[in-house]
Amino acid sequence: MGGLFAIYEGISKMRHPHETESLGIAIGILVVAILLETYSLRTAVKEVGHVKPAGQSYWQFIRTSKSPELPTVLLEDVAAETGLFLALFGVLLGHFTHNPRWDAAGSIAIGVLLVVVAFVLGVEMKALLLGETASKADRLLLSNALRNHPQISEVIYMHTEHLGPDTLLVATKAIFEPSLSAEDVSRIIDEAETAMRAAVPSARFIFIEPDMQRLAR
């Protein structure tokens, strides 16, 4: 709503332009806000750096993170910092060019920025609310841990779903060696679960179903 209101305000100023009143106060407020927001953004970047894998970009971190807190704070701080600079540039350009429509353009740009950030956050939060799957790297690690067991010949399918930032559910079906007894199958399932948790510690809940029809052949 804030983004749409900013766009509406910008369009209104475009239609009815007027000079900025109390220019010094407006610039002073924006400069102080930029300094405070810069400190906040620096803190957010520092916190993300503690949990972000080496070599991963900040955008990749936002897209792949299973915890909504840090990506949300980082995006909001980036949007706020960018919006403040847009507002400052709009006010200054409007003053020096004697064209108040620059201020209006700044408001519209801020509105568009807020709408885009809200859309990105909505998409990412929706994925987490609906149960996002594990990353490709984690799915490969889980699959390899299962396939590497000498008495498991094939993985038929594997379904993964995040129940929380550090809690992953894994449901899989695999073909075991046909000569195994029920006791052997139970033991192998325990061994496979241990190997999968060692590969991906967030895999808290693992359900392995042996293919009984193929097992009996």
UniProtKB/TrEMBL annotation:
Residues 1-129 form the Cation efflux protein transmembrane domain. The keyword Lipoprotein does not apply. One of its GO terms (cellular component) is membrane. It is a multi-pass membrane protein. It is found in: Membrane. The chain crosses the membrane at residues 23-41, 73-96, 108-129. It comes from freshwater metagenome. One of its GO terms (molecular function) is monoatomic cation transmembrane transporter activity. Keywords: Membrane, Transmembrane, Transmembrane helix, Transport. GO terms for biological process: zinc ion transport. This is Unannotated protein.
